[in-house]
Amino acid sequence: MRWSLLVLLGSLLAGAAGDGDAPEARPAWMPAGEPTVASPLPFDHGEHRGIFASAGIVCLDCHGFAPLAQAPAAPALGETCHGCHLQELPGAPRAAPRTCATCHTVPAELRPQSHAVAWLTEHALEARAPAATCRDCHDTSECLDCHDRRGAGSTSPHPPAFRAVHGLDAQMDPASCTSCHAAATCEACHTAGGMTP
Amino acid sequence: MIWLLATALAYEGEHEVRLAVDALPGTLGEPLTRGALGITLHDEGDGVTVDASGTLRGSTLGESALALERMQVSGGWGAARLHLGRHVHLDLRGAERLDGLSVDVGDGTSAWAGRLWFPEELDLDHPAGTTVLGAQVRGLASGVVLGGRLHGGAGAELRAGEADVAGRLWGAAELRGARGAAFSALVEGDPVAGLRADTRLSLPVARRLDLGLSGRWEDLPRATASPAWEAPQTWLAEDGYGVLAARAAWRGDEGSVVVEAGPVFTADDTGALGRLDLATTLGPCDVGVFGRGAWTGRQGYLGGGLGASGAAGVLTLDGDAGLFRVRHLDQRDSWAGELRARALGDVSGPEGGLAVGLEAAAGADRLLLPWARAGVVVTARSTRSDEGSP
Q1: Which chain B residues are closer than 8 Å to A130 by Cβ?
Q2: What is the pTM of this model?
Q3: Which of A135, A147, A158, B196 is the most buried (most CB within 10 A)?
């Protein structure tokens, strides 16, 4: 009985789209005259029909009870999508693309509000909290991918001109250096690089 | 690396190739050119994921012409994940770089063996890494306490190196109230090496205003089990030091203001550190103003600058500039300033994309010697075309 229901709901979802290129098109089950909304994501219901039916994903997993025009997507939408697309669900279909750009066509829109200009100095504090959510988006190696880059495309964690004044910071709070650097970092410039002490 | 590049070019799965080159015409008379080539391949089967990645860096500073920064293969089976090669490994203190093998089970248990290293080896040509064998057990838990959400963790780490055996106990807790109040505490200890403690309190005193206090005691450098892997802290503050800070943060729809300042004290010296950050949105741009200062004895600096970033279509631009007044460093007063700018064009879609970035920076150090740097980075990414259909 449950599977029949799922297949039925899957069929409804399939009927709801089949035309991902025009997400604001009227689903087959929606009475004429009901307002429709443009999907915030390039989502194709028809392409997902079989997957949803077999995984037990139903309409209400994404759509809330509110009229569609007022609630195009429930807050849990991310969890539903990421279950397969970030492989967070055991047995998630292998074919689900894992790249963020699959759905988020404008990567800049993914950036949390907190990641403003001052985030360069703020993020170290946030990242150390036990409940830090960095890894929701970032892999561990990404920390070092930025902190090690030191060149083109770098995202320097230090403010401009820090190189000129860092000696005093290191003298007063050396543990803040230790989280990334070994003492040999100092030697790299102050001996091999020919810099003055 | 050549094999990885050849494989990437013929690979039908998800992969990324990244090339970056930049040049400094002169840094105190030392011209420097450096480049990096990074390649990542990703594949996954039934319950098994495999990643292969490598980054090759070259520099004209130091005697090493080329260095392999990352070359790893990772595989996952259920909750277990294995990393082999030159990779990034998480210990109790954060990320470190390991040549060898590490195994993670869930979020808390891991074991690793190999040689620790650091990227400055490339410029220094000085192999200061150390061979280690380590294991870590960490437990994390969450619950509701006093009406707030409590996240807690405790862990232990043991590592044996070339010269020593080091063990650490670690505990951390964070309590977040429903109205935004937060308290966190962290303690890490080693009966021989010392103690590190860090506590922070943040209280919302108005709808968008938080006040905070924090205190740190630092007398425990990162565990190394080798004198070759010395931390700057070991010779800059051998007997430990403390940092106290008061903090005020206002965050609204229009922007945010954060001010933080407090004393730093050691057994025979005191000083102060402070910073100010303002951020707001002007049309399509995020704009920020920052200020920084530090003072100890007769030495100090005070300064700040501007930062801005914005996006238009596929183009992202950001830049910042800073100017500092330096007092009595090397027995003289001076100025130091820097200007940095970046532009990134990113054309990405579900099947892959291409990004091209340009970066330039110029400034004058506190000896008023000018310097400049410029570089380009190209990133190409492709995903197997048949992954788009279920």
Answers
A1: 140, 151-153, 172-174, 184
A2: 0.70
A3: B196
